[in-house]
Amino acid sequence: MIQKDEINEILEKYHKEKITIATLCSHSALNITYGAKQEGFRTLGICQTERVPYYRAFTEAKPDIFPPDIPSIEDPKDMLNEKFQEILREHNTIVVPTGSFVAYVGSKNLEENFFVPVQGNRKVLEWEGNRKKQKQWLENSGVKIPKEFKYPSDIDRLCITKFYGAKGGQGFFLAASEKDFYKEIEKRKIDPKKTKFVIQEYVLGSRLYPHMHFSPFSERGLKINDGWLEILGYDQRMESNIDELHRAGLSRKEMKKLGIEESFTVVGNRPVIPREKLQIPYYSIGKKIVEASQKLFSPGMLGAFCPETICTKDLDIYVFEISARIVAGTNIWSPTGAPEGWYIWGEPMYMGRRIAREIKLGIERGELEKVVY
Ligand code: ATP
User: Fold this and answer.
1) Three-state helix/strand/coil letters over 36-61
2) Residue 340 forms part of a structural domain
3) Which terminus in the chain has less CB density within 10 A, N or C?
4) How far is the CA of 373 from the centre of ligand 1 (A)?
5) 34 plus 76 within the same structural domain
6) Considering the domain boundaries, does residue 75 fall inside one?
């Protein structure tokens, strides 16, 4: 693991008035870049060659430092090349990690081979990426989580089987019994002995994704120990084809007979304004998650995160996963800002901008190292 002192040393050499905010051109890069520009930062785009013309097409959200001024990359892992890292450091770059960034570069590489300051707490990536650790984090926080079944023979209700590392819900399936489970496994030609998966109770309700941010600086939002929790907005993912199956009016059995497989692949996001009474339990969930993180991996959760939740008909909220960085669902509120963000900041405050604001506050206070690792 790259030590915090090593990153602090790099940060000390940076020209603080010339800090550049960078990310990989994917996932929430337009949101992050536009937000950083609004906060007065120079921006840099780490971009794969075939994507360059497309990111250039977003005239106002295009990063300032962009190929051909810097090299484009063929594979996201190319940013680990010493020469590329040197270019990033020369530009006084702070990198904002996103879902794609972590998935393509790998959390192990970020922990061990990426000597460029990263916004937030690098340690959190390991707690997010490792399902066992993430479960420990959730259990320690005391939030409600879906029941898990160790063996297929334990299945006694509708369950969802999730594969490790299957980003965006790809390949997940539903099964209500052991027999169902093995039928699905066979169909997918999966060897359950060689594949890592988790079987979770399928919680019925409305999925809600709150856009949370924890700051040691802001003095806005909900005070928790030495920091402040803000919820800037909410979204719901659009998942194909599970969201639309009801339109065909078929039962799960009929669907299977026709050879239609449910799928949870994310194709987009829609805005949600939850009932006002739900804002309180959502803050409470965020508080519990932050407090547990501070105990488990000090200084704990910093910056953007999202407990992925399902709210049942009785308004019980289950957390089935934590994304410990900006989620793509925040894109829906960029650059207008959701009402919740306005109520805290009195101006459009969406996650890309909020991340840049945090870096700005860190520079102004001479405490940048508190929010960068
Ligand atoms: P990502 O890393 O992109 O967040 P993932 O591959 O880790 O995705 P999850 O977010 O855990 O997968 O789940 C994908 C989708 O499956 C969810 O958005 C939700 O629709 C559904 N889902 C997951 N767990 C449950 C559950 N316990 N009950 C009901 N639906 C669930």
Assistant:
1) HHHCCCEEEEECEHHHHHHHHCCCCC
2) yes
3) N
4) 28
5) yes
6) yes
Segment 12-22, tens digit of pLDDT:
999 999 999 99
Given the structure tokens 């949870």, which residue do they identify?
264
User: Which pLDDT score, from 0 to 100, does residue 286 have?
Assistant: 98
The domain that contains 153 carries what CATH number?
Answer: 3.30.1490.20
Domain of residue 53, CATH code: 3.40.50.20
Q: Which of 101, 94, 114, 82 is nearest to 43 (CA)?
A: 94
Q: What is the C-alpha separation between 151 and 93, in angstroms, rounded?
A: 47
Instruction: Indicate the top mutation candidate among 127, 202, 264 to test ligand 1's pocket, ranked by most ligand atoms within 8 A of CB.
Output: 264
> Distance between CA 334 and CA 352 in Å, rounded?
7
pLDDT digits (tens, 9 = 90+) for 80-125: 999 999 999 999 999 999 999 999 998 899 999 999 999 999 999 8
> Cα–Cα distance between 269 and 350 in angstroms, integer?
15
> What SS3 class is residue 262?
coil
What contacts 215, CB < 8 A, 6 or more positions away? 221, 227, 228, 230, 302, 303, 358, 361, 371
| C-beta of residue 37 within 8 angstroms of C-beta of residue 110 | no
Alpha-carbon distance values, 279 to 3, 282, 313, 315, 329 (Å): 37, 5, 16, 12, 18
Pocket of ligand 1 (CB under 6 A): 146, 160, 162, 166-169, 172, 200-203, 207, 237, 239, 264, 308, 310, 320-321, 323
* Domain range enclosing 172: 147-201
Nearest to 23 by CA among 351, 370, 300: 351
Residue 295 lies in a domain: yes
**Closest CA to ligand 1's atom 15:** 169
Is 274 exposed, middle or buried, given 0-12, 13-18 or 19+ CB atoms closer than 10 A?
middle
Q: Tell me if 116 sits within 8 A of 85, measured CB to CB.
A: yes
Cα of 130 to ligand 1 centre, how many Å? 15
